[in-house]
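In response to reviewer comment 3 from the previous cycle, which asked for concrete evidence that the modeling workflow produces usable outputs, we include below a single protein chain processed end to end. The sequence was submitted unchanged, and the resulting structure tokens are shown without manual editing.
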Amino acid sequence: MELTPSLIVRAYASGLFPMAESAEAAQLHWFQPRQRGILPLDRFHVSRSLRRSLRRCDWVFSCDTGFAEVLAACADRAETWINPDIARVFTELHALGLAHSVEVRSSDGALAGGVYGLALRGVFFAESMVSRRTDGSKLALAELVARLRRGGFVLLDTQYLTPHLASLGGIEISGARYMRQLEGALEIHADHACAFAPSNPQASNGAYWQPITQTS
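The workflow returned the following structure tokens.
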């Protein structure tokens, strides 16, 4: 079965997603976990140390200015489920305006962190994230959450719950509950242009995050 943008859209709207066993694997496997990881958009957790990290460096936040770079960085690890077919189809989805990336760069322009995924109606399916600097992926996810809330999204799907995501407010719900939330989110007409605008001048001092985070 050829992996196409239309197949990905239909699968994700049905609660399915593909993964490969490795970067070299030609075969894809489709998953629909009994327990699904999500990150409630009103429960994102920013620790004091993360806020200190935000203040310490002159981070630059952007969206869709380095999609290929973020995707490649996410795949550049010893073990990855992103094979050439997945990279190709998400590149095609990005060209269609359906897949998006959030980038965090240091003052010298180097990629510090990022996250990419698929946006459909009122749901964002986060595929993978990467850190090249301390807290890079956390900063990228915080920026993504803020953007999704600004655009009126109601569901952030993380597929599985990891300890890293749990520390940021991620939870695990049953597959049945997830499907109910997914169906509702697919009826929402979120403002994608607002959520995925290239730049966000408000993000530089963290004030943009204040209304949407819990702090400890």
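The two ends are 47 Å apart (CA to CA). We consider this sufficient to address the reviewer's concern, and the full set will be provided in the supplementary archive.
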